[in-house]
């Protein structure tokens, strides 16, 4: 079991961000009705430190960590778009064998794309994000997200921002769920404005004690 370590190294990246990057991460939580269910959006609570694994990933894959000019606040989730999410989620989940970083790289924390069809939860997320971007999805709607799972262990999923709510692509299941329908506690995710900026998903009064011991599983 490895740690989602918080690294000060991210300051090197933040210092190089474009000057017009906004820190306004407020998200509407007005829930319109859809299919007899309430649409749920994740609420954010300001900037936070990124996982050190992501910081190191960006050192090796700088082009994959730059803000993209194509910005969209949310994707209009049509039936075709939802099926595309299902296809990518299923494709990656069935083609990648779960394996820890220690088993693969003899490292506690190493974020990368799956190697020889093997990887852990962050590797699944990185590949799903890349495949969807290649299909034309705006990067600003595909956000790497750190959660605490049903076993209170650290885990990574891909949050998809749509007009019908925030949905989750998860290597633990092939079904695409609304974030509110998962058993997870949401800790932090990338900013939709800049992938190098991470924002807290925990209210300030709960953030310190919850973030310290977040660890990673498959």
In short:
The chain has helices at 10-14, 52-60, 79-95, 101-105, 121-134, 207-211; strands at 2-3, 33-34, 37-38, 47-48, 97-98, 118-119, 142-148, 154-162, 165-170, 173-178, 185-190, 198-200, 215-216. By secondary structure, the protein is an alpha+beta fold. The protein has one domain: Roll (C8orf32 fold).
The CATH topology is: C8orf32 fold
Count of beta strands: 13
Secondary structure: helix percent: 25-40%
User: Main β-sheet, in a few words?
Assistant: 7 strands, antiparallel
The helix tally amounts to 6
Q: Strands across the major sheet, in which order?
A: 4-12-11-7-8-9-10
What overall form do the CA principal axes indicate? Answer: globular
SSE string: EHEEEHHEHEHEEEEEEHE
- Regions with little confidence, pLDDT below 50 for 5+ residues: 5-34, 209-216
- Estimated share of beta-strand residues: 15-25%
Q: Regarding CATH, which class?
A: Alpha Beta
- Round the mean pLDDT to the nearest integer and report it: 83
Q: Termini, distance in Å? A: 9 Å
């Amino acid at each position: 079991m490895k740690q989602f370590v918080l690294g000060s190294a991210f300051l090197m990246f933040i210092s190089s961000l474009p000057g017009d990057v906004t820190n306004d991460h407020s998200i509407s939580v007005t829930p319109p009705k859809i299919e007899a269910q309430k649409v749920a959006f994740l609420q954010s609570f300001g900037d936070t430190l990124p996982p050190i694994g992501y910081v190191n990933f960006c050192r090796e894959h700088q082009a994959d960590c730059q803000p993209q000019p194509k910005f969209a606040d949310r994707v209009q989730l049509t039936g075709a778009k939802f099926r595309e999410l299902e296809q990518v989620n299923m494709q990656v989940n069935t083609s990648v064998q779960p394996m820890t970083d220690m088993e693969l790289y003899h490292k506690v924390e190493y974020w990368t794309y799956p190697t020889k069809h093997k990887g852990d939860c962050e590797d699944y997320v990185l590949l799903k994000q890349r495949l969807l971007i290649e299909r034309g999805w705006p990067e600003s709607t595909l956000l790497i997200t750190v959660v605490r799972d049903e076993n209170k262990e650290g885990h990574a999923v891909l949050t998809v921002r749509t007009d019908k709510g925030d949905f989750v692509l998860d290597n633990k299941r092939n079904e695409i769920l609304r974030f509110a329908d998962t058993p997870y506690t949401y800790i932090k995710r990338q900013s939709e404005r800049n992938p190098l900026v991470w924002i807290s998903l925990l209210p300030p009064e709960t953030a310190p004690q919850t973030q310290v011991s977040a660890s990673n599983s498959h």
